[in-house]
Amino acid sequence: MKNPDNKFSIFFLERLKSFKHAWDGWKFVLKTQQNAWIHLAATILVILMSLWLRIQRADWIAILLVIGIVWTAEFFNTAMEAVVDLVSPEKHPLAKIGKDVGAAAVLIAAGMALAIGLIILGPPLLVKLGL
Predict the structure, then answer these.
(1) Under 8 Å CB-to-CB from 88, ≥6 apart: which residues?
(2) Residues annotated as part of the active site
């Protein structure tokens, strides 16, 4: 009979490896994707502004959700670009479409985040600034 403690250890070590792979993905995106730098700056700015404005819990949920959607779109786009480059190293019209559509998804997510950010943060910011 196999040692059940060993199964737990193996399971735990495999999960740690999964987190390391995910962290490697984060580092790759932040090192190689200039648009991710913009997302990072916007994320930090919006979180700091939300703290300063002391927004309500429901507003925090919306802010964090759209931040997550933008980052997720950026990560999927980066992954898709890598796969397209792997299977089509030479320029191909379908590869271009795949990359362009992925970029459009990020643009849509960022536009939604901007609109939601303005709706949530705009009014309290104007009040705080006395405008």
Answers:
(1) 94, 95
(2) 74
